[in-house]
């Protein structure tokens, strides 16, 4: 037990010496924080950050505009639900260039892209139920809105969409890796421990699954299960277990020859206890490294599926979906609309790959 603890400390010390590994770990912790508090941090905290303003579409980062909010009655929403899934906002937001107070309301001039005179509209005081005088409208329902990353082609706040999109990428990675570990470790351990016909049958399944291109298999499973959020998670997870199973099988075949396993059999322990208590704990170091790489692969696959239109469906914000909506803008003078989500995907995938490399070096006993 002491030896195990000392090896763990040695691995941790080696990991801390890897600058890129520590930096990537800190970056991922920040991403997890942003994912958890996405709606609290997002300027647009409506559900899926889907508040559209077509008159200010495709605006540059840092764009500012005055926004008039017309309140609407909505059902009371649980605070916890609003925090994690956004507010069910039915308010109407109107970008305006100027306004003037009238006796019974407010007159506004809508914002226009080409600096021409926008439409003029009047809103009566009755549309603002909490106010007694029209002069109170600007202080309570007009605010200056700043879009730090600009707006997308529908006039939605790009920063808010990016923040909530982190959830999709991290969730797909976590759930897909979890599914792949459950299936891969089970199949690999059974095949490696029992051998014979059982191992041959499992290897046949592994080889057949391995021979099918991953993206095609994911597309086939997604189409069979239907388009949607959870369907993509399951589809990606069902295609990533093969590599885990092969590694676990090889590790189990080597570890089961150890003397402590023979001693466990001699003591009368059943196969389940021997595998779970004695073999697997000493076989999972490579699996941890593979899981980091699979996490990165899952993010790339989900982004690819969303780009093809069979991943997370609108209005759910997915980084791949954002690229799909704006890739044409690369040649239309606003490349940042596609480059920002592209750089985000690249950063997240790179972080997981660097952590995988750092774990590989830290868990390498030959360098201990």
TrEMBL record:
<keyword id="KW-0472">Membrane</keyword>
<feature type="domain" description="ABC transmembrane type-1">
    <location>
        <begin position="166"/>
        <end position="356"/>
    </location>
</feature>
<keyword id="KW-1003">Cell membrane</keyword>
<feature type="transmembrane region" description="Helical">
    <location>
        <begin position="229"/>
        <end position="248"/>
    </location>
</feature>
<keyword id="KW-0813">Transport</keyword>
<keyword id="KW-1133">Transmembrane helix</keyword>
<dbReference type="InterPro" id="IPR050366">
    <property type="entry name" value="BP-dependent_transpt_permease"/>
</dbReference>
<comment type="similarity">
    <text>Belongs to the binding-protein-dependent transport system permease family.</text>
</comment>
<dbReference type="InterPro" id="IPR035906">
    <property type="entry name" value="MetI-like_sf"/>
</dbReference>
<feature type="transmembrane region" description="Helical">
    <location>
        <begin position="336"/>
        <end position="359"/>
    </location>
</feature>
<feature type="transmembrane region" description="Helical">
    <location>
        <begin position="168"/>
        <end position="194"/>
    </location>
</feature>
<feature type="transmembrane region" description="Helical">
    <location>
        <begin position="20"/>
        <end position="42"/>
    </location>
</feature>
<protein>
    <submittedName>
        <fullName>ABC transporter permease</fullName>
    </submittedName>
</protein>
<dbReference type="InterPro" id="IPR000515">
    <property type="entry name" value="MetI-like"/>
</dbReference>
<feature type="transmembrane region" description="Helical">
    <location>
        <begin position="283"/>
        <end position="301"/>
    </location>
</feature>
<dbReference type="Pfam" id="PF12911">
    <property type="entry name" value="OppC_N"/>
</dbReference>
<dbReference type="InterPro" id="IPR025966">
    <property type="entry name" value="OppC_N"/>
</dbReference>
<feature type="transmembrane region" description="Helical">
    <location>
        <begin position="201"/>
        <end position="223"/>
    </location>
</feature>
<dbReference type="Pfam" id="PF00528">
    <property type="entry name" value="BPD_transp_1"/>
</dbReference>
<keyword id="KW-0812">Transmembrane</keyword>
